[in-house]
Amino acid sequence: MNLSIYFFRDNCGLIALFQPLTPNSTSNDLFCVATTHLLFSPKRGDIKLAQIQYFLAEIDQLSIKNPTLNSYYPIIICGDFNAQPQSPLSKFLINGHIKYDTYRSIEISGQIPQSIVNNRFSLQLPSNELLPSSFVTSDCCFPKTISTDAKDQLIFQTYMNQQSSAILRHNKKFNSVYDLNDSSEVTTCIDNESNLVDYIFYTKQDNDRHRLNLLSRYDLYKENQMLNLHLPNRQFASDHFLLAAKFALKLKKKKK
Fold first, then answer.
1. Residues linked to residue 199 through DSSP beta bridges, in sequence order
2. Surface-to-core class of residue 214, CB atoms within 10 Å of its CB (0-12 exposed, 13-18 middle, 19+ buried)
3. With the CA atoms of 88, 94, 98 and 100 taken in that order, what torsion angle do they form, in degrees rounded to the nearest 10?
4. What is the count of structural domains for the chain?
5. For 34-56, what is each residue's pLDDT tens digit?
6. What is the residue range of 90's domain?
7. How far apart are CA 146 and CA 149, in angstroms?
8. Neighbour count for residue 92 (Cβ, 10 Å)
């Protein structure tokens, strides 16, 4: 598979760290916001999965708070993922793992009905690594620099990665702002076909589950409201509807 044609473009995502503008906030109160627009092509699930792998690696690098403790600042990611809610790609973000060589490229994003997918040719995703582990690891991180004394360990780890390189994992415990089990909600309507492909995800930390709290959100339109609607139009300037959510960030106490 040729990933290079689609993957190496400077449009995978934007990522930034923010700090609240309040006298009580410190450098411990940073939070990460990232947005992306994955490739549209329903047939190229391999590209989308590679984009997510790289996107998560960039988020990991910027949002890590303490590498020794493996702790992170709160993370919010959003955007047009061009994937259905119950697709393997969406489930990977929520569940934190995917064995991708069990899928064909056309199946990753779930944009094409299964009845059509079953009768359409598509390449199987590779049983080897999707992206070179020297570039992005299967844990969706950038490779760590190691000492010369660890060379033998690196060789062994590289061997182990090759044995299970068709598995991607990440350690970010994402929650969805919207109910991914509600098939009636939509975020786009093109050529009388309405879908939910836009998302807002946020992290909940095991050691402090109330660090970042969802307060409110915009309601989504329902599929039955899309009858005879053509986007964009005079009321809606985009072919996607607006998503918005309000969060509360609990500040860390200052050390006396």
1. 79
2. middle
3. 30
4. 1
5. 999 999 999 999 999 999 999 99
6. 4-249
7. 8
8. 24
